[in-house]
Design a protein that fits this description.
Elements: H1 3-11, H2 15-36, H3 38-41, E1 42-47, E2 54-55, H4 68-73, H5 93-104, E3 112-116, H6 120-126, E4 131-136, E5 150-151, E6 164-168, H7 179-189, E7 190-197, E8 202-203, E9 210-211, H8 218-225, E10 232-235, H9 236-246, E11 249-253, E12 272-276
Parallel strand pairs: 3-4, 3-6, 4-5, 6-7, 8-10
Antiparallel strand pairs: 1-2, 7-12, 9-10, 11-12
The protein binds zinc ion (ZN).
Zinc ion binds next to loops.
């Protein structure tokens, strides 16, 4: 779409709602398409922890990396690859990892939860089990998921201190120029002992985090960071250090420890960070 038209639609605050409607239509078409191919995938060995269906394999092709070359150069673990998409409910490997954690490691019942840039399947799981608030800087984009989503800037949240038991911002911080401020705000609104799920794309093979936080050049960002709206690729230890500096405790769950979840076709090369605000 022409940038000028985009800007006009944005100024009228209809650009993101239009995108939301478009995404909703795409989601439905995609769901019907894969349901036609369902028999090709079903079988034993793997299971979707959202819809419960059992599979020989999941769909490989979604979400497609925008710039695979940029990700490959730095060996970025970003949630792409084999066995990504559930052919029935369209859950992704990223969502199934979070779901496995939510079902086994975190008490969510009746808890205050903030879900930033909400993902459809996780939202549907949480909405009737907890006191859930969803928010995004461009809430219109997510209206197809939650019509009550709030407008919030992650670097300047409107919530009071020590309010949430859990904050989920799954693959968000790599989009935010001032990630330190977002980390501070998430820390502030969490209760003592509260948990944050803040998975990001990361690399263990680069010397330091690659970033140009204030870059406003989608083409170059795509070439450098693999996606036009990303502003960095985190080096894993540096990412953990940034969280520690904010005041969180962080425990890195490596591959072996996540083995019980492999049945859900999570990415076997992805670590999970247990992030807590100390008691
Ligand atoms: Zn499913």
């Amino acid at each position: 779409m022409n940038q000028q038209i985009k800007n006009i639609l944005k100024s009228l605050e209809i650009y993101h709602p239009l995108q939301s409607g478009y995404r909703n239509i795409l989601f439905k078409i995609k769901r019907e398409y894969y349901r036609m191919l369902f028999s090709k995938y079903k079988g034993k060995g793997l299971e979707c922890n959202f819809c419960g269906h059992q599979y020989l394999k999941f769909v490989d092709d979604y979400p497609e990396p925008e710039n695979q070359q940029a990700l490959s150069i730095s060996n970025v673990v970003a949630g792409y690859g084999k066995n990504i998409l559930c052919p029935f409910c369209l859950s992704t490997a990223r969502e199934r990892l979070v779901m496995a954690i939510l079902k086994t490691k975190i008490d969510i019942s009746n808890k205050n939860i903030l879900h930033l840039s909400p993902e459809k399947n996780i939202f549907n799981f949480l909405k009737d089990r907890s006191k859930l608030v969803t928010a995004d800087l461009f809430p219109g984009y997510y209206k197809n998921i939650d019509k009550d989503i709030r407008k919030e800037n992650a670097t300047l949240l409107s919530f009071e201190n020590d309010y949430f038991d859990l904050v989920i911002a799954n693959h968000i911080l790599e989009h935010i120029p001032d990630d330190a401020d977002a980390m501070k705000e998430i820390f502030r609104v969490l209760k003592r002992g509260g948990v944050a799920i803040l998975q990001v794309p990361y690399s263990e093979s680069i010397a330091e985090t690659l970033e140009t936080p204030l870059m406003d050049n989608p083409k170059l960002q795509s070439a450098l960071y693999g996606q036009r709206d990303h502003v960095r690729i985190y080096e894993l230890n540096d990412y953990i250090n940034r969280l520690l500096k904010t005041g969180f405790t962080v425990s890195c769950k490596k591959y072996e420890m996540l083995k019980p979840f492999y049945i859900y076709a999570i990415q076997t090369d992805e670590v999970f960070l247990e992030i807590k605000k100390p008691d």
